[in-house]
Fold this protein.
Amino acid sequence: MVVQQHRSGGGARAVCALAVVGVMMAAAGCAGDGGGGDRAAADDRSGTGAVAAVRRAAAVLVGPGSGSAAGSAEVVTSMETAAGGTRVTIRGKGTYDFRTQSGRLKVVLPQDPAGEDEHRPITELLAPGALYMMNRGAGVPADKWVRIDTTALADGNLVTGGVTDPMAAAELLGGVSAVTYVGETDLAGVTVRHYRGTTDIGRAARRASAASRGALTAAANGFRTDTVPFDAYLDEQGRLRKVRHRFSFVNEGQTREVVSTTLLYGFGVAVSVPLPDARDIYTGKIEQGRAPGTSDRTGTGTRPEPGRP
């Protein structure tokens, strides 16, 4: 999926190219691990306590891996949008280290209308300021990686890669100013607290870690509006178990929405993300108008596709 943002006449408008393919249901589940750590304070359920609980979600995930901290986790993602009356879902699964802000995910693209896979699964490596993709298509050799500078993307890679970087998803919650506590619910056998609210990308960027700040600042400058509605689910230890963001942009005068969901489980898992050697990174021309999860581009604008040198 590629969302392209363009600024003109002082305003921002987004151009989105999406494949019109068969409906794919997102069935992302997660296995949870419960115990250990102190129960969150009662005031986490309302007022400033709820705001603080959501804001510190990223910090809890970065912790040293004991007590209430996470350090790393297994990840399941889905990114859903509607195009041409058809709901399209891109799914991902892998592992992520919140301390190094790096991860490895396998991304599965929607099927083509004939029911056959249009693309092989894409391997994505997430690193501070960079996204590496293999099996990207668009004329890229199958044994080569494409490297994308996420700080140069107008959306900061919140939606471009078909997966929202798990750390970015958590750090986006740092921009909240008001939160509603919805109640307790069960998520794959784990009791979680459900919070709902809106976050501000610009505010989140200013509060983010140095490694995330560049990409989030790019997103704050690129999206038509900084406001992002969310639903966040925290366990008794304050760890983020699930977060859903709804990103809105304008395409040819119509407001579009992309719903990105990130689920976290298996905390403390070992994560190894060796980055490709320079000789394995493709530097040639990438076919215009074709990208993972997209059909030929619609709309206008001159910003290169992500991954184009």
Summary: The two ends are 18 Å apart (CA to CA). DSSP finds five helices and 13 strands in the chain. The longest helix spans residues 210-222. Confidence is low (pLDDT under 50) at residues 1-41, 289-309.
